[in-house]
Amino acid sequence: MIEFKHVNKTYSKKGQSIDALKDVSFQVNKGDIYGVIGYSGAGKSTLIRLVNQLETTTSGDVIVDGENINQYSKSELRRARKHIGMIFQHFNLLETKTVFNNVAIPLYLIGTPKEEIKERVHAMLEFVGIGDKAKQYPKELSGGQKQRVAIARALITRPKILLCDEATSALDPATTEQILSLLKKVNNEFDITILIITHEMSVIQQICDKVAVMENGELIEHGSVKQVFSQP
Ligand code: ADP
Ligand code: ADP
Q1: Which of 46, 107, 187, 197 is at 20 to 30 A from 34, Cα to Cα?
Q2: What pLDDT does 66 receive?
Q3: Under a CB-based contact definition with an 8 Å cutoff, are residues 8 and 58 in contact?
Q4: What is the complex's ipTM, to 2 decimals?
Q5: Model's pTM, two decimal places?
């Protein structure tokens, strides 16, 4: 579903160049919950931004759902992004909009009929466990509830891939566990491939099937969670 082939990414800043990714190759299969773990600065955000085409590679290819997204035009990109949902550490909700409208926005943008929006948003809010919060505003919600809104918004267009960028890093351990089991339910019921980047080993151990370990821009190991973290 996602394939990196010899990907290099170099940023230049004030005449200096930083190699954020060095010859990174790996593959995420359809239906995987795939974790990428590494310390700050390892290159994890760069990797996820390449999947979502917020950055382009310096060399090498990123193939998403069978298509090389490096060669996309702007309109093809807009179409492709609809198949990718994303959630973040700080939720990125619109504070002036209700929960309902936060989740409905992606559907408004693609011209979905009003009645259908209503049905789908309410069903999705039920699914993520906040069916009673439609009329509330983000500031009235707990961190875990806000992340549920963000998950609902990411899924409402029925993407094939969900990208999670440190999505539980702002949550306490108990809430983290609840959000991770919700992600597991999403993976099971909707057949969505999930790519998680995190610096927390516990996240990888709780829900990932496979893991890649990053260090200084290099992918130093990858495989099943059991393989990679079993003691020799
Ligand atoms: P992580 O998400 O693992 O913390 P990043 O992908 O954010 O890692 O960063 C990898 C390296 O690339 C770091 O050295 C970081 O400083 C650098 N970097 C990231 N984004 C930029 C940018 N826009 N311009 C210059 N350097 C960047
Ligand atoms: P329906 O096909 O009638 O919408 P489903 O049982 O397939 O019902 O889905 C139940 C809920 O899950 C609905 O809110 C639907 O919008 C949502 N849903 C279904 N498939 C996906 C998907 N791939 N990604 C995100 N949400 C989905």
Answers
A1: 107
A2: 87
A3: yes
A4: 0.73
A5: 0.90
